[in-house]
Recover the amino acids of this structure.
């Protein structure tokens, strides 16, 4: 497990917290001109990037990462079009 060190201004040391670099999170946030906008996080929220992909690439990316996928409000129409063979794209009743 990697460790995440933070060093605030002024040289003061903060506690080191463990980061599980195996943890992958995807949050689908928007739809623009046929592309899915999403945030991809590895291990720690500080390691988040915003990405945009066409639906087939998004599906492949999610599967390759084995990520836990969540959906922003208003994304139901996009989620409904994706293959249900990927557990992350199946309705959960939680959202």
């Amino acid at each position: 497990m990697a460790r995440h060190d933070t060093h605030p201004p002024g040289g003061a040391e903060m506690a080191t917290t463990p980061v599980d670099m195996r943890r992958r999170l995807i949050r689908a946030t928007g739809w623009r001109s046929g592309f899915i906008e999403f945030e991809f996080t590895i291990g720690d929220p500080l390691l988040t990037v915003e990405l945009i992909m066409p639906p087939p690439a998004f599906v492949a990316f999610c599967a390759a990462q084995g990520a836990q996928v969540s959906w922003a409000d208003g994304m139901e129409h996009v989620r409904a079009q994706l293959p249900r063979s990927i557990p992350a794209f199946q309705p959960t009743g939680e959202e």
User: Anything to note?
Assistant: The longest helix spans residues 55-65.
